[in-house]
Amino acid sequence: MRRETKIGLYIFLAPVLMWLLLLIVVPHIDLFIMSLRGEDDLGEAIWTLDNYHSFFSERIYWLTFARTATYALLVTLLTFLITFPVAFYITKVVHRRYSAFLTILLLMPFWVSELVRVYGWMILLRESGVINHLLLGMGLLEQPVELLYNDVSMVMGLVYTSMLFMAVPLISSLEGMDDNLIEAAHDLGASKLTIFLRIVIPYAAPGITSGAIVVFMLTLGNYLTPNLMGGKNSLWFTEQIYNQFIASFNWNQGAAFGFLLLLLSSLIIWAGLRLSRQDLGRALT
Amino acid sequence: MIRTLPGSRGYMLGYRVYIALFYLFLFAPLAITCILAFNDSNFPSLPWKGFTLEWFTADTLERVGIFHDQNNLKSIWVSFQTAFFVSLLSLLVGTMGAFLFEQEQFRFKQGLYFLALTPLVIPGVILGISLLLAANSAGLFVEERLGIDLALLRPSFWLVVLGQFSFITTFVLLVVSARLRKFDPTLEEAALNLGASRLDVIRLIVIPFLKPALIGAGAVAFLMSFENFNTTLFLVGSDTTLPINLYLQVRDGSTPVINAISFLLIVGTSLLAVTNLLLSGQTTKA
C-alpha cells in the first residue's frame, strides 16, 4: 500500500518535472545566459554586459520600454474603469434572469481569435473604413480621416482585447458579495459614492488584483494589437524584441530585451500581489 | 442602485444606456467583419454592393474564395493538427499535475506548484524567444557532439506544439485541480477497501468524476492553441498556423477572403463555446 503510493507519486511527478524543467526553467536560464554573451573585436564569443549597456545608452530602447510600461498601466486602469460598471450591473443590478445571459454574451467575443477582433477594428477605423464611410454619408466629415495607426486607437484596441480578463474575476468576486451589506449601508444613510468606495471596492479587491495582474501582463507582452493598430510608430517593446530576433538576427541583444521585459512584468505582478496580500495561486484561480 | 434598492429614473436610464453602448462596442468589430464577408466588393469596406457568396465559393482569376484558397486552407489544417496535439498533451500532463498537487505529499511541493503557475504570468513573447534560444542551443549541442541534425529543434511544427503546450498545461492544471478538490475522498477509500488498486480507482472512479472538467479544459486548450499568436510567432517554421498566416495577409493589405475566414472562425468558435457551456454547465471559466 505504502509502496504503491510512492510509485504513484513518481508517475505523476516525472512528466510534470519534465514539462517545467525542460520547457520553462532551462529556456529561461538560457535566455539569461544568452543576454550576457557577445562577441569581442576578434569575433570570439565572450561574457559581456554590452547588451544591457546598449539598452541604457540608446535612448530609443529605454524610452520604448518606459512607454510600453506606462501605456500598459494606463490600459489596465482604463479596462478596470470600463468593465467595473458592467460587472456590477450584471451581478447586482439587472434582474437575475438576465445575469447568466449577459455574462455569456460578454464572454462570446473573446472566444474568437485576437487577430479577428483586431482585424474588425481595422476595417471599422481605417481611412477607407466603415466609420469614415458612415460619417461622410451623414455629412459630418468632408474628407476621410485616418482613425487607425495612432496611440488612441492602439490603447483602445488593447483595452478591447483585455476586457474579458478583468470582467471575469470582477464578476466572480462581486457574485459572492451579500446584497445585505449594501442595503445596510444604504439604510444607515451612506451615499452611493461612500458605498462604492468603502464597501463594494474593498470587497471586490481580490478580483480587481487578479484582473489587473493578468491584464497588465498580457498588455505588456502583446505584439499583435500595437503592431497592427498602432502603425509604424507604435514603438511597443515586444516589437523591439521581434526586430532583434527576426530582422537584425541579434539574438543576444533580443535576449537582454526579453529578460528586461520579464523582469518588469514579474516585478509589477509581485508588487500587485504584495499590495493586495494575495498569493499567485489565489490570484489565478 | 441594486435590485432591492431601485435608484432614481435618470440614474437607471443612464446606467442602461452605458451597458447598451458597452455591448455595442463589444460586438461592433465582429458584426462588421461578418457582414462584409458577404459584400460583393473587392475591398472589405462599405458601400454595400450586394450580397454574394463569392468570397467563400468563387474559384476564378479575380476572386478565389476560402474554399479554394490553398494557402489558407493549408494553414487551417496546420492549426487543427497543432491544436489537436497541444490539447492532447496538455490534458495528459495537466491532469497528472492536478493529481500530483492535490493528492500527493512531497518535499518542495509549494515551490513546484508556484513554478507550475508561472507560465500563465510569463508574457507569451518571452516564452517564445526563450524556447527558441534553448532549442537552438540544444540543437547546436546535439550537432557538435553527436553529429545529428535534429529538425525538431529548429523552428518547426513540433516546436510550436511544445511552446503552446508549455503554458496551456498550466491552464488545464488549474481547471482539473478545481474539480479534483471537490472529489469526495471517501469514495476512493471505499474502493480501496473493497480491493481496487490505485489505478482502478483513478480509471473507474476519479476520471469519470473529472469528465466535465476534462472536456471543458480540452475544448479551451484546443481554442487557446488554435488562436495562439505571440508564442507561435517565434517558433513557427514553414508550416504557418492560421493566426500567423492571417497576420501576414492583414499586414500587407486585406481582401474579403479574410472576412470569410473570420466569419467561419466566429461561427465555429461560438458553436464550440455554446456546446462547451451546455456540456459543462459552467459560465465563468474563460
Would you summarize the structure shown here?
The complex is a heterodimer of chains A (285) and B (286). By secondary structure, chain A is mostly helical. Chain A contains 13 helices and two strands.
CATH topology of chain A: MetI-like fold
Instruction: Provide the CATH architecture of chain A.
Output: Orthogonal Bundle
* Helix/strand order of chain A: HEEHHHHHHHHHHHH
Shape of chain B: globular
Which residue ranges of chain A are poorly predicted, with pLDDT under 50 across at least 5 consecutive positions?
Answer: none
Please identify which CATH superfamily of the largest domain in chain B we are dealing with: MetI-like
Structural class of chain B: mainly alpha
Tell me the Rg of chain A in angstroms.
24 Å
- Quickly name the level 1 CATH class of chain A: Mainly Alpha
Number of beta-strand segments of chain B = 0
| Approximate strand percentage of chain A | under 5%
Number of domains of chain B: 2
CATH topology label of the largest domain in chain B: MetI-like fold
Inertia-based shape of chain A: globular
Find the biggest chain interface.
A-B, 100 and 93 residues
CATH class membership of the largest domain in chain B: Mainly Alpha
Structural class of chain A: mainly alpha
Distance between the termini of chain A: 33 Å
Largest sheet of chain B: none
| CATH homologous superfamily descriptor of chain A | MetI-like
Give the termini distance of chain B in whole angstroms. 28 Å
Notes on the protein architecture:
The complex is a heterodimer of chains A (285) and B (286). A two-stranded antiparallel ribbon of chain A has the order 1-2. In chain A, helix 3 (59-93) packs across helix 7 and helix 7 packs across helix 9. Chain A is mainly alpha-helical. Chain A has a single domain (50-284), classed as MetI-like fold, CATH 1.10.3720.10. In chain A, 79% of the residues lie in helices and 2% in strands. In chain B, helix 1 (9-36) crosses helix 11 (256-280). Chain B is built from 11 helices and no strands. Chain B has 2 domains: 1-36; 69-280, MetI-like (MetI-like fold, Orthogonal Bundle). With 286 residues, chain B is an all-alpha fold. At the A-B interface, helix 1, helix 3, helix 4, helix 5 and helix 6 of A face helix 1, helix 3, helix 4, helix 5 and helix 6 of B.
